[in-house]
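User: I've been trying to design a sequence by hand for this structure and keep getting stuck. Would you show me what you'd pick, starting by listing the structure so we're on the same page?

Assistant: Good idea, let's start from the same input. This is the structure you sent:
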């Protein structure tokens, strides 16, 4: 598994933990790292994603809700929602990650952590979000 994939998977787990125990980002990350091991570069990438999602959550959630027809955020599984949040953050705020990489990573992580329906669900919403975000310069 690549370093960034590992970082995304750890970020998903950290965001899920913060949903279950909303203690604040710094305390939440500190508690999370007590039970996880990762090289420094992966930890840094993970924290960039988690902090980015938390700092931009209102914007991210609004966009997800706009693009997810017939699905409110409350009806989505926490795993699917946090995969969508991570990928939406990357699509909007990470100019260094191509959109197709973000979408593919979201789908692959959904296959591992979500339900049987999660990959198609994630793909459909991320395609809608990606279509509304300006193309990244590469």
């Amino acid at each position: 598994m690549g370093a960034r994939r590992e970082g995304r998977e750890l970020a998903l787990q950290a965001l899920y933990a913060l949903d279950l125990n909303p203690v604040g980002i710094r305390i939440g990350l500190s508690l999370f790292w007590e039970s996880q091991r990762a090289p420094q570069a992966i930890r840094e990438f993970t924290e960039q994603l988690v902090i980015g999602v938390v700092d931009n959550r209102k914007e991210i959630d609004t966009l997800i809700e706009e693009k997810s027809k017939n699905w409110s955020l409350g009806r989505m599984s926490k795993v699917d929602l946090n995969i969508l949040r991570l990928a939406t953050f990357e699509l909007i705020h990470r100019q260094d990650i191509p959109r197709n990489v973000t979408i593919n990573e979201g789908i692959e992580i959904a296959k591992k952590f979500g339900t049987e329906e999660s990959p198609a669900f994630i793909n459909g919403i991320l395609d809608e979000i990606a279509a509304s975000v300006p193309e990244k310069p590469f």
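That's my pick for every position. To get oriented when you compare it with your attempt: The mean pLDDT is 92. The chain has one domain: 3-132.
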